[in-house]
Write a structure and sequence with these properties.
The complex is a heterodimer. By secondary structure, chain A is an alpha+beta fold. Helices cover 42% and strands 19% of the residues of chain A. In chain A, helix 3 packs parallel to helix 8, helix 10 packs antiparallel against helix 11 and helix 11 crosses helix 16. Chain A starts with 8 loop residues before the first strand and ends in a 6-residue tail after the last strand. Chain B has 16 helices and 11 strands. The chains are: A alpha+beta, B alpha+beta.
Chain lengths: 441, 430
């Protein structure tokens, strides 16, 4: 088997901002991605969704081109243009046919250096977001994901949906967007990723020369104070929707931040518990053995200052409580016994051997590069992380499971036809039952 | 682009077809088994059996326990899954290339030694019923789309959902599954695709070794063709929703027709990206939350005549009749004038780029070859896809718009919102 190695070309524009480039892919396409290391955690209170709307607003026109002209130009190059925020980062993504790479580069620079933030387009974008949020309300699964996140992150700068809420979006003005831009872009660090089947030296030189101009406009950033999550009180929230035949169940726990030394242990623990599909305990117990659901998984988010681990599933109304109980039993057993030697070895092998598969396409590779670069982690350290995974011991898994999966602190959300199962939950402390119709997205 | 889809085809004596594609860029491979077993091969009473059977393929064999198949592959660094469509069922594994023999042996083993017992069947049927609720009952428009298909098709099997009617799922028996397996899972009804870091001769040796003794099975399917639609069909679907919606379905030809490419061009021109006509006319100014004309691009376009779907999700404040009227006006305008020169260039480039983007993965390349082979008995037809996009013409787009996108060929459903109290009168959506 061939060895798998990747070494991006790193061009440092100054000590904080850089270009990471890699010839990658089998087809003649280019991907230009601007990562700005600030995201939704910067949203002001009452104006949640601002970072994401700002990132989109950069695609709504420049001083030289209207929204229509800008998007037509990009799409004519076989491309797409997207602006969006994550929790700790914002992205501008531009992709198109490789032969038009120079034009794509110029457009990306124009968007960043000459944004227009047209008021009328921003107002329309807000309207679109409000409609999209109403669409969320029709989908109990999406609503469950939004609401459990807020419950899990309470007390942190992350305790809101990235795309805001019906009330917060209404509060954002076009002036807020311009102000946010002037606060973020000159101060926050950026990395430009360039992935293309062929990467010509002159193209890289042009990118360096062009984006160096952005550095000239930068100011020094003062490091914001780090925030810590508050200690959560456990609660069970049931949202009653009598027309549903299936319940959405979410269970959330506080977890560790991205820079925690045990991140690789968490990754492995999550795989064993519920992230590893049919190789996970939750899938085995709840789906394969009991047939309660089509899907159950656990996933984790490790952010700058804190993190969360969320178990998600759905089940027909009449098995709602049985499913919940089975999840708790599985967790209890997992904490007590930990994984078996066989399970652990198989999980390690998965991470070790699946790496080329997980980085096969430029998009997959970009996602991995972005998630590491956001937290100032070197891409090459990915290989070291895999190495560390192969050395994890059962005791380490048990220890982190014991620390994170504390059922006495869990946040539980259930959306369903509550009259069929609410009685089973009445012994739990902090139980609230609220009509679904009263909850706004 | 041909080199990315340049499979070598081999046919075993038992009728099993094998497509092999070498690509040594990374030490990985995609292994796919495409079976002529989709909802078009079902009949009323056993709808959903193709999909349910797909689940049963993971429930164990003479030597493997439930889901052990998947666990073994994951433990070797692989990813495994399957999906069922109207026309076929596909089982796939993406794995490190040193696992080639293991995958071939395991896939052949489950065909020969599949364990179909009542306990597994009962468990998996409930899993599928939960999946059905997830896809149909609890989504905003899933049940309405299901009704759209059953209204648009009177006779053809595309009228029922791939996942099946809940009433049929409840009645399906283990015996039905055994019979379905016997009839459909024969080597002459399958295409195996192996692409990636492999040596064709070695692959072929292994395939002969593990699949060579499977016996072919005669299986005759008479698919009732859909009669031409003779006038618009309309319906209303009431349920509690925040946003009402319009769904239109136009009958269009199957994947072997040249017309699918200009039809995809129309979809792209009207609703692909932010510079598209629908986005500019309806979404940008806030007249609708979403308006799109969509079809599955090749290789996923259906084998038999399918449906081109237009959906429009309202923006509160714009009543459905007025939204519908404006969409009809846009369609009329397109039929009259077609795309502008710039729009045509954009449409071509976007369709090409989107297809190329997908070709980055071995998995997708395998799907293109395998699905073209199972639907049209020839993966070579996939070589034309990019050329067809490149040679799109405005007059062809106008021609197919006039031919297919007219009222008599349309089925329409409006999703109207009702209160929970009114909804209680109708009962629950299963």
């Amino acid at each position: 088997m061939k060895t798998f190695n990747l070494n991006p070309i790193e061009i440092n524009l100054d000590s904080n901002n850089k270009i990471l480039a890699l010839p990658y892919g089998k087809v003649p396409l280019s991907y230009l991605v601007m990562l700005i290391k600030a995201g939704s955690e910067k949203d002001p209170k009452g104006k949640e969704g601002l970072a994401d709307l700002w990132a989109e607003s950069m695609t709504l026109g420049t001083k030289r081109r209207s929204l229509e002209e800008l998007n037509f130009q990009v799409e004519k190059l076989g491309g797409y243009l997207e602006g969006s925020a994550g929790w700790d980062f914002s992205l501008l993504i531009l992709s198109g046919l490789e032969e038009r790479g120079n034009e794509l580069l110029d457009i990306l620079f124009e968007i960043l250096s000459e944004p227009d933030f047209p008021s009328s387009e921003i107002e329309k974008a807000k309207e679109r977001r409000l409609s999209n949020l109403l669409q969320f309300k029709d989908d109990p699964s999406k609503m469950a994901d939004r609401l459990i996140w807020n419950m899990a992150m309470e007390g942190t700068p992350y305790a809101h949906p990235i795309n805001g809420s019906l009330s917060s979006i209404k509060n954002i003005t076009p002036e807020d967007i311009g102000h946010f831009h002037n606060q973020i872009l000159p101060k926050e660090r950026f990395t430009l990723f360039i992935l293309s089947k062929e990467l010509k030296a002159e193209f890289l030189k042009k990118a360096e020369k062009t984006f160096f101009k952005l550095i000239m406009q930068k100011e020094k950033n003062e490091k914001p104070p780090e925030t810590k999550p508050s200690t959560l009180q456990p609660q069970i929230l049931i949202l009653d929707r009598p027309d549903l035949t299936q319940s959405e169940i979410r269970i959330a726990f506080s977890s560790i931040s991205r820079k925690d030394d045990r991140y690789h242990v968490l990754k492995l623990m999550n795989y064993l518990l519920g992230g590893g599909g049919f190789s996970s305990r939750l899938m085995e117990k709840v789906r394969s053995q009991k047939g309660y659901t089509y899907s159950i998984r656990s996933s984790f988010s490790s952010l700058k200052t804190c993190g969360t681990l969320i178990i998600s599933t759905f089940t027909p109304t009449d098995t709602t409580y049985a499913t919940f109980e089975e999840i708790l039993l599985t967790i209890e057993d997992f904490i007590k016994q930990g994984p078996t030697e066989k399970e652990l070895e198989e999980a390690k092998r998965f991470f070790e051997k699946s790496l080329p598969l997980r980085l096969e396409t430029p998009k997959q590779l970009l996602n991995e590069m972005i998630s590491r670069e956001t937290y100032d982690l070197k891409f090459q350290d990915l290989f070291e992380e895999i190495e560390k995974i192969t050395k994890v011991k059962i005791e380490e898994i048990k220890s982190i499971a014991n620390e994170i999966l504390q059922t006495q602190k869990m946040q539980v959300l259930i959306i369903g036809n509550s009259q069929h199962f609410v009685k089973n939950f009445e012994d739990f402390k902090n139980l609230r039952v609220v009509p679904y119709k009263d909850v706004l997205p | 682009m041909r080199e990315l889809l340049n499979f070598r085809r081999y046919t075993l004596d038992n009728g099993l077809r094998v497509l092999i594609l070498e690509d040594h860029t990374l030490p990985i491979l995609s292994y796919q088994v495409h079976v002529k077993a989709g909802s078009r091969f079902e009949r009323p009473g056993i709808t959903g059996i193709s999909h349910l059977f797909e689940h049963m393929m993971f429930r164990g064999t003479s030597r493997l326990g439930p889901e052990e198949f998947s666990k073994i592959i994951q433990s070797r660094g692989g990813i495994v899954n399957a999906f069922t469509t109207q026309d076929h069922t596909t089982y796939w594994e993406n794995v490190p290339s040193d696992q080639l023999e293991l995958i071939i042996e395991l896939e052949a083993h489950r065909l020969k030694e599949l364990k179909l017992d009542q306990e597994s069947f009962s468990t998996e049927r409930e899993v599928v019923r939960s999946e059905r609720k997830m896809r149909i009952s609890t989504t905003p428009y899933g049940a309405a789309i299901e009704e759209l298909f059953s209204l648009a098709y009177l006779r053809h099997p595309y009228r029922w959902p791939i996942i099946g009617w809940d009433s049929d799922l409840r009645k399906l028996s283990l015996k039905d599954c055994q019979e379905y397996f016997r009839l459909h899972y024969a080597p002459n009804s399958m295409v195996i695709v192996v692409c990636g870091d492999v040596v064709p001769e070695r692959v072929l040796d292994l395939i002969y070794r593990y699949y060579g003794d499977l016996r072919p099975q005669e299986c005759f399917h008479e698919i009732e063709p859909e009669p031409p639609q003779r006038g618009e069909r309309k319906s209303v679907f009431k349920k509690p929703v925040e946003l009402e919606a319009i769904f239109w379905a136009y009958h269009v030809p199957g994947i072997d027709s040249e017309d699918i490419f200009p039809l995809l061009g129309i979809c792209e021109c009207l609703s692909g990206g932010k510079s598209s006509r629908f986005w500019q006319k309806f979404v940008r100014p806030g007249k609708a939350t979403e308006v799109r004309l969509v079809a599955d691009p090749p290789p996923f376009w259906p084998k038999d005549p399918g449906l081109l779907i237009l959906y429009a999700i309202e923006k509160p404040g714009t009543p459905l009749p007025s939204l519908e009227g404006e969409i009809e006006e846009e369609m009329r305008l397109f039929k009259k004038e077609g795309p502008t020169k710039d729009e045509l260039e954009k449409v071509k480039n976007r369709l090409k780029a989107s297809f190329l983007r997908n070709l980055e993965s071995l998995f997708f390349r395998g799907l293109v070859g395998g699905i073209y082979e199972i639907k049209l008995d020839g993966f070579e037809k996939s070589w034309e896809i990019l050329e067809k996009y490149e040679s799109l013409k405005a007059e062809d787009m106008i021609r197919v718009a006039e031919k297919y996108l007219h009222e008599d060929n349309r089925t329409s459903i409006w999703v109207k919102s009702i209160s929970l109290e009114e909804n209680a009168r109708f009962g629950l959506i299963e």
